[in-house]
Amino acid sequence: MVKRKKGLSKREIEHIAWLARIQLSKKEVNLFTHQLNDILTYFAKIDEVDTEDIPPAYHVLDLVNVLRKDEVKPSLEETFQTVPQTKGRFVKAPRMT
Question: CA-to-CA distance for 77 and 86, rounded, in angstroms?
């Protein structure tokens, strides 16, 4: 696990804002520095949890596929009846130039 230094500096927040093309006032820089450091503190707490024996989960809820099964239907036959020209099982269209 990589150890990170304690929090983000105001200079780093200003650099992130510059990368995002966002202009921040000094008050906003101070506010975002505090807020982002609080978020990083919570992430550090989460990192402390022992998850060695917990299997990975792909979704937090135990959901199953709720979609219907695919059923093949002869829908192209109706389409070919309305097409002006066909060649075999293909639609014949004018040449593009």
Answer: 12
Give tens-digit pLDDT for 52-69: 888 887 777 777 777 888
List domains and CATH numbers for the chain.
10-47 (1.10.20.60)
Quick one: angle between helices 26-47 and 10-19, nearest 10? 100
Count of positions (residues) in the chain: 97
Tally: H helices and E strands in the chain: 3, 2
Q: Are 86 and 76 in contact (CB under 8 A)?
A: no
What pLDDT does residue 67 have? 83
What is the token pair recorded at 12?
A: 């780093």
Q: Quick one: tokens of 61?
A: 């809820």
Q: State the pLDDT at residue 1.
A: 47
